[in-house]
Amino acid sequence: MPETILVVDDDPDILELLKMNLEPEGYTVRTANDGDGALQSASTEPPDLILLDVMMPHKNGLQVIAELKNIDETKSIPVILVTARGQADDKVLGLETGADDYITKPFDLREVTARVEAVLGRTRPIKYINPLKRAMGEGFSEEGLQQLAGHLEAAAAIQKKLLPDQAPRFDEYDIANLLQSSTSVSGDFYDFILLNETQVGIVLGDVKGNGIPAALLMVMIRTALRLLCHEEGTPASILKRINDLVAQDTEADLFATMIYGILDMKTSTFTYANGGHCYPFHYNSRKGIDELKTGGMLIGAFEEATFTYGTCHLDPGDIIVFYTDGITETEAAEDTTSDVSTHWEQDASVLFYGGDRLAACLAENTELSASALSEAILNDLAEFSGSTQTHDDRALIVIKRLEVNS
Known about the structure:
Elements: E1 4-8, H1 12-22, E2 28-32, H2 35-44, E3 49-53, H3 61-68, E4 79-83, H4 88-97, E5 101-104, H5 109-136, H6 142-162, E6 173-180, E7 188-194, E8 199-207, H7 211-228, H8 235-249, E9 256-264, E10 269-275, E11 281-284, E12 288-291, E13 309-313, E14 319-323, H9 325-328, H10 354-364, H11 370-385, E15 394-401
Parallel strand pairs: 1-2, 1-3, 3-4, 4-5
Antiparallel strand pairs: 6-15, 7-8, 8-9, 9-10, 10-13, 11-12, 11-14, 14-15
Helix pairs in contact: 2-3, 7-8
């Protein structure tokens, strides 16, 4: 999101000049032509920085700074004073009042841009620390931060223990999984639940957002699923019960997408229900690649959500790939956009890895084991994005029915 600068000056030509200079640099610029207007604008919607003229009628810039420093919502906003007076005493007085920097008229526009960036560079960390200070209250201290860091490490360790260390092993099925978190805790999750000797429950999910709130909802959903999946019922009825629980106990803007299905090794079928999640890919040597498009509503977004289930037959050599949108929404490296196929998913400014490229990667690597196929997808993502780092959680499950030697 562009940073916002409030420019305050009683000269409309100066306002327009600074606005024309700063907006091409990527800043959002608001203006006010007197001290009272500046205070009202800053209090209503605090900007990231204020460029403030000193010499204004009724209320000068120094008075404006003094009032800003007495308002909780505005006291941390950095201020650069702009004035025609260049005496050293005036500069010192402005800095003592609370200004972060000082520009003298007539000014060089390049200097204005450089000073704005320099001040924002110093104050950006404070901008992001302030919400933490408010949340921690009196606990915000070096000791409190160390304690918070310890709690986050513990939360990450607990979450990691809730996820299976490895996929289950079966004679006729090769299963692999991976999870890459963008933060210490993750909103993406997977699970394998042995239901009986021939059936295993498989889930892959993605809670909106990341960090602690997403991780808490992930644990809630995982726990509910583990309790419900051993009861009689279809995957659709289980998703319905999980949705009712989440919708009742969480806010409307906290929801998840997920797929839950039952792999039946006796009948060679996968019966599944989809709660608003990315459609899995199914590879068959005779039919090629298609998507498992039985779908349903988001988990927890609506109290009256409904779900249906579908069944997929698995022949020897068949592969199912489940994934979260952290994979398909990986952005391309800048030097990648010029030589990629036009059918890959993109908008006017961003090129995404997309489902088409994931399907192509699957088609090129069907002879690999499940774990090797997962690694091939990761390598293709790294080549596409130019990095092994991720800005969103990523999760992947690959199921391959093995060829049986006669």
